[in-house]
Amino acid sequence: MVVWDVLETVMDPEVPALSVVDLGIVRDVEVDADGAVTVSITPTYSGCPAMQAIHDDIIAALRAGGWPNVHVRTVYAPAWSTDWVKPEARQKLAAYGIAPPELVPLTRPVVCPFCGSRETAMRSEFGPTACKALMYCRACEQPFELFKAI
Amino acid sequence: MEALRTYCVRLADDRLVLGHRLSEWCGHAPILEEDIALANIALDLIGQANLFYGLAGDPDQLAYLRDAIDYQNALIVELPKGDFAFTIIRQFLFSAAALYQMEALSRSTNADLGGIAAKATKETRYHVRHAGDWVLKLGDGTDESHRRAQDALNALWRYTGELFLMDAVDETLIAERVVPRLDPAPWRETVTDVIHRATLTVPDDGYMQRGGRQGRHTEALGHLLSEMQILQRSHPGAKW
Q1: One digit per residue, pLDDT tens: chain A, 150 residues?
Q2: Is residue A124 one of the residues assigned to a domain?
Q3: Please, are residues A127 and A145 in contact by the beta-carbon 8 Å criterion?
Q4: Are residues A7 and A69 in the same domain?
Q5: What is the H or E stretch that residue A73 is in?
Q6: What is the dihedral of CA A98, A99, A104, A105, to 10 degrees?
Q7: Is residue A36 domain-shared with residue A91, that is, in the same domain?
Q8: Is A80 inside a domain boundary?
Q9: Which CATH class is domain B2-234?
Q10: Which of B29, B118, B119, B231 is least surrounded by CB atoms within 10 angstroms?
């Protein structure tokens, strides 16, 4: 297994349907001649409370995968963008019940991840986590979350 | 180098103190969506504070182990949260200034500062839009919401001048092209437009309060810090 494959198994604690690679949080991986690994990660939002957990999970997963010497560093530039969320991850998000990234304010109707209707409306630009907005589907009368494009 | 450190601490102090004030609404906002929104914005601000402190030293030490006289936030952010209108008007006045500053700062010749500012810019756009929408709802809402919004605006206006004050710290960094010179004109245009659309009146420019950047604060900051710092002061080095 290579380092990237191991990182594919490290899930985001707040969006457990996606790995830290799917989300574009992992920016770079370097392995030096002695096998020491440096993983560069970037936060989705400045105050993302999951960063410490992600840091620890990456170290634990790589140690278990046979890389005892792991260093995780946090980089802030360039700023994270939802453009880095991988295309296949958009489908995983929808299957998990979270509408994939859209620009806010909305320029087109969002498809409800539960029933597929476009009869949806935004309830709040701020949802249960920093990266999500709160939506409501009038067709199936369910609230759901939308990943905000930034 | 000392000027850059001070500049970063000021940016961080503004955001930590305002983030704390917003967090006081957690569990008390008028509706659930607003409770979540204010907590989200507080989290963004405290996150930004953490990053800016990181450019100046140890964030925990700077946040938890300095006294009021060492804090260099603008006075507007430390005023007690007041009613919902006061919180919203303050957030709008501050966020509009912050957006302008973060956009300009994202072009800094200092890559670390510029990177964090670019990130903060994206977040601050949401904050301005959120608070701006509420200013319209409150100002152009009921007689009571209009009155409360105007009262808040009248009380807060005298604290806005400090957001654009430049002292030796700024001048040093402006000369080195590390930070932008802040001009209140574009900010004023943005807030005036929203205030007018909200059927509110822009207060007259009179005496402007100042002193926060030099550590001269209102009584309110000490009370805020005592609550925010008590755990770390009582149990030094505590982690959870």
Answers
A1: 699 999 999 999 988 999 999 999 999 999 999 999 999 999 989 988 889 999 999 999 999 999 999 999 999 888 899 999 888 899 999 999 999 998 888 888 999 999 999 999 999 999 988 889 999 999 999 999 999 988
A2: yes
A3: yes
A4: yes
A5: strand A70-74
A6: -120
A7: no
A8: no
A9: mainly alpha
A10: B231
